[in-house]
Write a structure and sequence with these properties.
11 strands; formyl-coa transferase, domain 3; Rossmann fold; 2 domains; alpha/beta
């Protein structure tokens, strides 16, 4: 499938997650993404497992090409300027002030190409008392109020994936797409700025809305209680999740599934408000019942009775599931630098066409010969 951004060239000078994630989303949509890295070391994420091709790096760098430039060196800066002159988008996620020291600040690059969409990602934004603070995923989650919704006070540990990093990449890509659309009418580029702090505050909109509209400070149990969501261990040690929501029919069907036809007559199960108020009692009643059968047995029964549920799967179980296979969710580049590269495809289809192929993340400087060498002699242009 030829992606809708096939005519767009993106220069990414990103490291770790936010910048690379934004560029990868554009690459998944067909953009020609050229990753510009420091000679010798490249994106620091490359070396997280030793070597220069860690799983961390691979996660956010598929469908790209890699070149190495040190823009503090005149010859390399000249090569970059030639790329910028023909590019559509430039993405960086440096702390404020670093881009200017590297000669890749927005003012300079947009003077070379007024049509350039320049995307700048920071931790806390271009102004304010936190402007110059270093920020990684957990810092942004905590600063935005989101981390508080994930932490069990009885066993306080940071959990889960790098949500703030990934979501900042999503918001940045969204801003770039809006600017590209606007450029069709105006002919001019834009400075698109995103911070991890702002992105996570917006992602945490439900928390803020409850505070602004009802004065409620949400906690880690607020949403699970209201949505009536549960996790239960089965007899084989595997887990499943329920999201019962409000329709009575789901609870009636669950009562049949667990063999308690009179369950909804019990005080703690009588209606939605009672189930929310007595969440722990509901769990205490249901948990022993789910320990009586294996997860597969429960899933078969819950599926038959249309109870909203799912096994809590590992990544391996997801990849091997019938649903993932039916949707062609796993795609592969059989010729990756370190053997076959498998990943999860972009989740959006266009006119029924899905992404069916992928290019493995490039090794450092893989495309220097094709892209950089001609720029040493050619006056302009991107090969």
């Amino acid at each position: 499938m030829t992606g809708p951004l096939a005519n767009i060239t993106v220069l990414e000078m990103g490291t770790f997650i936010t910048g690379p994630a934004a560029a990868m989303l554009l690459a998944d949509l067909g953009a020609n993404v050229i990753k510009i890295e420091q000679p010798g070391t490249g994106d620091p994420f490359r070396a997280f497992k030793g070597g220069l091709y860690s799983p961390h790096y691979q996660t956010y760098n598929r469908n790209k090409r890699s070149i190495t430039l040190d823009t503090r060196v005149a010859e390399d800066l000249t090569a970059l300027d030639k790329l910028v002159a023909e590019a559509d988008v430039f993405i960086q996620n440096f702390r404020p002030g670093v881009s200017k020291r590297l000669n890749v600040d927005a003012e300079r690059l947009r003077s070379i190409n007024p049509r350039l969409i320049y995307a700048s990602i920071s931790g806390f934004g271009p102004e304010g008392p936190d402007r110059d603070r270093p920020a990684f995923d957990t810092v942004a989650q905590a600063a935005s109020g989101f981390l508080r919704l994930l932490i069990n006070p009885a066993n306080p540990r940071v959990v889960g994936p790098a949500i703030a990093d990934a979501m900042t990449g999503f918001y940045t890509a969204l801003g770039v797409l809006a600017a590209l659309n606007e450029r069709q009418a105006t002919g001019h580029g834009r400075l698109v700025e995103t911070s991890m702090f702002e992105a996570m505050c917006h992602f945490n909109l439900d928390d803020f809305t409850h505070f602004f509209s009802a004065g409620q400070i949400m906690g880690p149990w607020s949403r699970p209680h209201v949505s009536q969501s549960y996790v239960f261990e089965c007899s084989d040690g595997k887990w499943l999740a329920l999201h019962m929501s409000s329709p009575t029919k789901f609870w009636e069907n669950l009562a049949e599934a667990v063999g308690m036809p009179d369950m909804l007559s019990l005080p703690e199960f009588r209606d939605r408000n009672e189930r929310i108020a007595n969440y722990e009692n509901v769990v205490a009643t249901l948990a022993p019942l789910f320990k009586k059968k294996t997860r597969d047995e429960w899933c078969e029964q819950l599926t038959r009775l249309e109870v909203p549920h799912s096994p809590m799967r590992t990544s391996e179980e997801v990849a091997e599931s019938a649903q993932a296979k039916a949707l062609g969710l796993v795609i592969e580049d059989p010729h990756g630098p370190e053997g076959p590269f498998r990943t999860i495809r972009f989740p959006v289809s266009f006119d029924g066409e899905r992404q069916t192929s992928v290019t493995a993340p490039p090794v450092l400087g893989a495309d220097n010969h094709q892209i950089i060498d001609p720029l040493r002699t050619e006056p302009s242009g991107i090969p």
